[in-house]
Design goal:
The protein is mainly alpha-helical. The protein contains 15 helices and six strands. It has a four-stranded mixed sheet. Strands 1-6 form a two-stranded antiparallel sheet.
């Protein structure tokens, strides 16, 4: 059984690395061709940024694999011996939280490098070291508080019934739904400052747009996301009566009112089609499969690892294998999600205008330095949205090659 676990995880790592290498080679070739959607210099810069991020991802994959080997090679047993409490519930909470925090600490330098080196170089980062430390401390504290409650809940379920995996799944699925409902509130309390939209005319148009699809929210808010990042974004957060519309201030700066309405029309399309609930259902399906697997692992695996079959060990193994299992399940979710994006684009075009939605998509690509081309294998495993070029074609937009500047000029200014 241990060999099976090793093979599955190793296959996951090999596929991730192979996909990253193929993506880097594809972009390296594509960025030297005629630019699409962007000026040539921006096209080249976006390509360089994508390659840099993918190279960092490769480093992260090796670190992840090293951690996997260490944990299976004695790390789990060591962690159990570090925390020795008479109370088994407390022991379980400390062991599982210890696993989570150690992993986060090991990978934190990569997160720091991504933000303060790569994002800084390409003009995204607006955060400071002080803000990064503050966010990290808050995230860690929230992880400890919320994580402790969840771990304790799973522990109680595991010691109460043989069908713990089924009831554990229902418990975690309920937590997922609750987090979706509370996400806007948590983000506003601890991270972003949300203020009501001051542009009354734009707010009125947004309200009219929402009425057309029967979307009712607590209001339209603006997030001060620019204090951390220059990327453009917006989201509809919450479920039920807790729904709210949140616009990044960077989005308001870069898009015209009509383009913004078209983007929100796209998001309302997701609401009208019930995509939020479909996504939650798919996540539920993934969780069900994972819990079913870990609820029926033979005892021989624990014997090979030199540990007892205790709730803390089962939870650690679950968290350890979750990235690999998710990776193999994601293509199904990706295909469904990409289909939903096309349908939401149709609604966005109907509500906000096809021309405005197309222009907004082009601006989002340029401002976020999102390279518009990707290797098919990379799309298969990672893309929840169709490539923007395909979305534009579906909207009836003729994607033109930008010949406003020569590639020679781009090479001089883009490296």
């Amino acid at each position: 059984m241990l060999m099976t676990v090793m093979v599955i995880y190793s296959l996951y790592v090999v596929l991730k690395l192979y996909t990253s290498v193929m993506q880097i080679g594809y972009i390296n070739n594509a960025k030297r061709q005629n630019a699409v959607l962007m000026r040539s210099a921006d096209f080249l810069k976006a390509g360089n940024y994508s390659i840099a991020k993918e190279k960092l991802s490769i480093v992260g994959t090796f670190v992840e694999y090293l951690l996997f080997i260490i944990w299976l090679g004695g790390g789990i047993s060591w962690l159990q011996n570090v925390y020795m409490f008479d109370n088994p519930a407390l022991q379980t909470v400390f062991v599982v939280l210890g696993f989570v925090i150690i992993n986060a600490a090991v990978t934190m330098p990569l997160e720091w490098y991504s933000k303060f080196v790569l994002d800084e170089e390409f003009g995204f980062n607006r955060s400071t070291y002080a803000l990064f430390i503050k966010d990290t401390v808050i995230t860690t504290l929230l992880t400890i508080v919320i994580g402790s409650i969840i771990i304790w809940g799973i522990y109680l379920i595991m010691i109460s019934t043989q069908l713990w995996w089924l009831w554990g799944f229902l418990f975690i699925f309920g937590v997922v739904i609750l987090i979706n409902m509370l996400f806007p509130t948590i983000r506003a309390l601890f991270f972003d400052k949300l203020t009501p939209l001051k542009d009354e005319e734009l707010g009125k148009k947004i309200e009219e747009l929402m009425e057309k699809t029967g979307f009712h929210s607590q209001g339209v808010f603006v997030s001060d996301a620019s204090k951390r990042d220059a990327r453009l974004n917006a989201y509809f957060g919450g479920l039920g009566k807790s729904k709210r519309v949140v616009l990044f201030d960077t989005l308001l700066e870069k898009l015209s009112a009509q383009e913004l309405l078209a983007v929100l029309g796209h998001e309302l399309g997701h609401f009208a089609h019930g995509d939020i609930y479909k996504n939650i259902a798919m996540v539920g399906g993934m969780l069900f499969v994972m819990f079913a697997i870990f609820g029926n692992i033979p005892n021989s695996l624990y014997l090979m690892l030199g540990v007892m079959e205790q709730p803390s060990v089962v939870m650690v193994l679950f968290l350890l294998m979750m990235p690999a299992l998710s990776f193999f399940m994601m293509p199904v979710m990706g295909m469904v999600s990409r289909h939903n994006e096309y349908e939401a684009d149709k609604t966005g075009a109907e509500l906000g205008g096809q021309l405005y939605l197309s222009e907004a998509l082009k601006k989002l690509v340029t401002e976020n330095k999102s390279f518009p081309l990707s290797h098919p294998l990379y799309i298969f495993f990672y893309y929840t949205h169709p490539p923007v070029i395909e979305r534009l074609k579906a909207l009836g937009d003729n994607v033109a090659v930008d010949d406003r500047s020569s590639m020679e000029e781009a090479w001089q200014g883009g490296e």
